[in-house]
Structures are given as C-alpha cells and as structure tokens.
Amino acid sequence: MAKESKRARAERAAEIFGLLAEEYPDAHCALIHSNAYQLGVATILSAQTTDVRVNLVTPALFERYPAPAHLADARPADVEEIIRSTGFFRNKTKNIIGFAQVVTDLHGGEVPRTMKELTALPGVGRKTANVILGNAFGVDEGVVVDTHVKRLSTLLAFTKEKTPEKVEGDLMALYPMERWTLLSHLLIFHGRQVCAARSPRCEACVMSHLCPSSRV
Length: 216
Ligand code: SF4
Known about the structure:
By secondary structure, this protein is mainly alpha-helical. It has helices at residues 6-23, 36-45, 51-64, 68-72, 76-83, 89-107, 115-119, 126-136, 147-155, 164-174, 180-193. The structure holds iron/sulfur cluster.
C-alpha cells in the first residue's frame, strides 16, 4: 500500500467506524455487571481468560460478596474456590480482595472515577481503569486495547506499535474522544466474529475494501 497521508487515514478510520457501528449496533462490554464494583472485579478476573468464562463465575461471587466491604473481609480460600476456573486464581484472589479493601477503606465503598485513583488500586492497570471509566461511568478517558484491538489496529494499519499503551496512543490520535469506548467494543466484536487471529474471514468483512491486510 502506498504511503497514506494523515488525512486519508483519518477519513478511512472514520469510514471504518461507521461501517462497524452499522454492523454491530449492540456492541457492548461482554462482562456481565451491574455496577462499577462488579465490573472492576470482572475485569481483573478476565486477565488471560475469556469474558465467557468470567461470566460463569461472577454470579456466585457477587451473590456471596454483594458489596466491596463483603469481599474486603473474605477468606482467600473461599474466593479461590469460586474463581478457580478463570486461571491464575491465587493471584486474582489477592487482587480482587485488595481492590475491595482499598475501595472500602479509602473510598468509602465507592469505586473512584479518575484514572489516577483507579490505577492506584490493586490489580488495576490502565486497561482495567479504561474499562471501568468507559463502561461503568460513561467517561471516555482512553481506548481499551486488548488482544483483538491490538491485532485489528495493526491489520488496519492504524499503528505500527507493539505495546498496548502505544497502540492506545495511536488510536486516541486517530479518533475523537467520544468514540474511544465504543471503538474498542466494535473492534472486539469484529475480532471475535469475523477477523479471527488464525483465520480472518476477509470475504465476509464489511471493511475489506478499506483494509490494507485484506486477502480479497
Ligand atoms: S479485511 Fe480481513 S484482515 Fe482486514 S479487518 Fe477484515 S477480516 Fe480482518
């Protein structure tokens, strides 16, 4: 592909967003949650596993520990038993109990709403903070870059970067702020349904004419 101007890339990016938004009008966060506490815990549990697997364990977890104060006082062995199937369960148990303790002790039981406060919580990095801000509080502070978003951003020639933070920076430069949260959902939906890592279905892709990596 010939070198693309900044403007041409921005136009292509906008067109891609429009096509994906039409294709996936119900794109949303796949982690089942009903508040910021639940979403924070679910996101911490989603490391190295699928959202589907997390959704299998969280109903029992939140029934037993409905608020941060309950989880803050939990016995680690009890939590480990519930979340075992999500993998890395000892570390995740430490993180979600620590998360609940700091939310309870320092924030009066309310998950904080700023990037700085969120990333100071145990188990919460920029990606988890972006998930919470965008989906529990409706704040577009950044773009969630998971494996799908990273792969598609590279295939679409939106970035040449390798680290999630730098990929996020390129996407934030390419799209207006109010699109950041939805952009991530759209790319994740497309990555799951059409542009799979091992076998992208370019022939079924609505943006194949705009994708430099298209095989058709
Ligand atoms: S054209 Fe192919 S490689 Fe490009 S986004 Fe679509 S499925 Fe993925």
